[in-house]
Amino acid sequence: MKVYIMGPKQIAGNSYISFYKDMVKFCKYYFDEVVCTYPDFWESKRAPKEHYKFIRRQIESCKALVAEVSTPATGLGVQLQMAVEYKIPVIGIVRKGKKVSALAEGLPMMRSILVYSSMKELKKKLGPELARLK
Hints:
Blueprint: E1 2-6, E2 10-11, E3 14-15, H1 17-27, E4 33-36, H2 48-60, E5 64-68, H3 74-85, E6 90-95, H4 102-105, E7 110-116, H5 119-133
Parallel strand pairs: 1-4, 1-5, 5-6, 6-7
Antiparallel strand pairs: 2-3
């Protein structure tokens, strides 16, 4: 089983690369395969149309998506819509104090939106959600 972790590279001007690396390690406890927007896809050397097709195939092959939705991002919105198209459950995660767009929050495949203020708190909330997806 495969999960895809996605979100913007920066949130409120802060790099989230170490956050995604930690999320990949955590999700490996629940899934056989974990792919992530960083570093797997941001550093792509593919032409834009090939990159789109690649991302689409990745999403199509997933059991679930974990989406960091604290900051609006065009690419994230496209990927969320792909989850709807393929009927793949999404777990949204949002940093405390940030507002999730109503459109993202209303996605038919959005199972839950978890508010967190630390990685420790997020893991405590996310673990049971991931376990239910197995």
